[in-house]
Amino acid sequence: MTRSPFKPSRRKALAGLATLAIAAASALPAHAQDAFPIAGKPVTLILPAIGGSTGDRILRLFAERLKDDWKVPVIVEAKPGAGGVIGSNFVAKAPADGHTILLGFSHLVQSYAFPNQKPPYDALKDLIPIARICDLPMLYLTGDTSVQTMAEEVAKLKATKASYGSYGNATTSHIYSELVNRRNNLGMAHAAYRGTPPLITDLIAGHIQTSVIDLGNTQAQVKAGKLKALAITGSKRNKMMPDVPTFAELGYTEVALPGRYWLFLPAGTAPATVERIRTSVLNVLKAPEVQEQMMEMGAEPAPAVREDVPASLRADVEYWKKVVQITGIKAD
Fold it and tell me: Measuring CA to CA, which of 39, 234, 277, 293 is 20 to 30 A from 158?
């Protein structure tokens, strides 16, 4: 039978379709062809603080589970310095391929409260929020464990030449400590430390008298009787320390927000990659054993749902602007 000149052979038709498929694939954007994760390329979780902190432990908890999901190594790397700016800037400038993720603290939104502080990045523009993973209740602490109440502590501080410490200038620890200082006209000097561990050491030793530090980094010392917790952030008492009153109960209504932890990607990361990572993170966050371990670390797991994180960040910016204005703190 003679083949019609108007009907190409099946083989030619298939070959033509294959050619079209190849051409279409080559026309796709690079991020559409290179799905996350890139095989064999590690994912790095950046901790913008010194190792050994609550943030470090939480990141490692997530890393262990994310590597099983993504089938690539997931490592935690500490890049401390400048109150979190060095590590945050590293991620903001990193390749937008999903393989560099930042654990962002409250410093990202607090920077907007200091007109003289201009990080080399704009946190609301140069970083993409993946999810809020937890809140960290903040404690007002003293090394004088004979003190039983905040009122008693304030009376003692007024009678002595006291000082308070923080884990860095213009941090949550500094801002909240200074709020109490000004509210009570205590006239305490401020000592800024390079991170939480040395701050806790000097608070226990009595080199400074008070500080505001998160529950996760201090609950062991409080339970051991080395530190006394006198107040805690939150709208209600924390079940980890039910005998400690909230700041609001004591009349310090300005001390409202806990410390917060978010995960961020560099701006420009493909939406499909952001969504892939967000799904994985939320799956880890909703696991009961992960929530239990985070609570044991003194953290309050965030809801494992898709939140409007940008709106939450903007609200936090406005809160910190108001609080910092009350304190008069200037960022170095």
Answer: 234
Give, rounded to a whole angstrom, the gap between the first and last alpha carbons of the chain: 89
Q: Is the CB of residue 244 less than 8 Å from the CB of residue 232?
A: yes
Q: Which helix (H) or strand (E) element contains residue 281?
A: helix 271-285
Sheet holding 127-136, edge to edge: 74-78, 43-47, 100-104, 259-266, 127-136, 300-301
Beta bridge partners of 259: 136
For the chain, which domains are there? 43-136+258-327 (3.40.190.150), 138-250 (3.40.190.10)
Q: What is the pLDDT of residues 217-262, one digit of tens each?
A: 999 999 999 999 999 999 999 999 999 999 999 999 999 999 999 9
Can you give the pTM of this predicted structure? 0.85
Instruction: Give the residue among 135, 143, 136, 140 at the shortest CA–CA distance from 249.
Output: 140
Which residues are within 8 A (CB) of 90 and not within 5 positions of it... i.e. 6 or more apart? 46, 79, 100
- Per-residue pLDDT of 159-191, as tens digits, reads 999 999 999 999 999 999 999 999 999 999 999
Residue 95 near residue 223 (C-beta atoms within 8 A): no
